[in-house]
Design a protein that fits this description.
The protein is an alpha/beta fold. The protein has one domain: 3-Layer(aba) Sandwich (Rossmann fold), CATH 3.40.50. The chain has ten helices and nine strands. It binds adenosine-5'-diphosphate and guanosine-5'-monophosphate (5GP).
Length: about 230
């Protein structure tokens, strides 16, 4: 594709949707890939806006037709990025942002190593739990088993962090948004101050904030290898 491909992943509840929606207000020319999913819409979600909500049979047909750039099963449902999203963004001369899970991200990074990959890191398990809880209360869907499963899943997902080029610790929202903007604009040849901010977010840079966040998840081995 002609534009830049951005991949964003995060453990559920880290604040990825919040960050992405802030980013889209600050940065022009970003196309957002609307994924296909077999899960049901939540709250005010609308078909064709957040996702294309489709039946399992139709998803399986699209797999058979090789219509997906990547797909994965997440929390018992299928999610996939249609290849047509890439074509559409290229036609419109826009950069494309994929909000996908770690399994899908590994597929895309393998196929398109030039993609700019960003992992959104929750600052600690306690904060992640609080955010998951707050959101579930807001959506009237509190289920202890779901929260516990998501926390467990988060630990597993952290193992993929080093396959991403950048990591943003989403502690306070405003600086996290500024970092995300700096990464996007740097990929588009931003100025030196933006480049410096983006460089601090490189997973290879091993910032103190990232190390602390990883340590708080008891991922001490990973934190040491930074
Ligand atoms: P995700 O898309 O990663 O699952 P959300 O964007 O839905 O996560 O965020 C989960 C919850 O955490 C939401 O209630 C959101 O308002 C809140 N949240 C997100 N980022 C922050 C932040 N930096 N500080 C405090 N709360 C946040
Ligand atoms: P949710 O159901 O909370 O919207 O999303 C659950 C997870 O599925 C999130 O981690 C989200 O990034 C991921 N996801 C959404 N769309 C896709 C997709 O097209 N492909 C893959 N692999 N994951 C996706």
């Amino acid at each position: 594709m002609a534009g830049i491909l951005f991949i964003i992943s995060a453990p559920s509840g880290s604040g990825k949707s919040t960050l992405v929606s802030e980013l889209r207000q600050l940065v022009e020319g970003l196309e957002f890939s609307v994924s296909y999913t077999t899960r049901l819409p939540r709250g005010s979600e609308t078909d064709g806006r957040e996702y294309h909500f489709i039946a399992r049979e139709r998803f399986e047909q699209m797999m058979a037709d090789d219509a997906f750039l990547e797909w994965a099963e997440v929390f018992g449902n299928y999610y996939g990025t249609a290849k047509s999203a890439l074509h559409l963004a290229a036609e419109h001369h826009r950069d494309l942002l994929l909000d996908i899970d770690v399994q899908g991200a590994m597929q895309v990074i393998g196929r398109m190593p030039e993609a700019v990959s960003i992992f959104i890191m929750p600052p600690s398990p306690a904060v992640l739990e609080k955010r998951l809880r707050n959101r579930s209360v807001a959506e009237h869907m509190t289920d202890e088993a779901v929260i516990e499963r998501r926390l467990q899943q988060a630990r597993g997902e952290l193992a993929y962090l080093h396959s991403y080029r950048y990591a943003i610790v989403n502690d306070v929202l405003e600086p996290a948004v500024a970092e995300m903007r700096a990464i996007v604009l740097t990929a588009r040849h931003g100025d030196a101050s933006l480049q410096a901010l983006a460089a601090q977010c490189e997973t290879g840079h091993g910032s103190v904030r990232l190390r602390r966040a990883l340590e708080s998840f008891a991922a001490v081995g990973q934190a040491k290898s930074l």
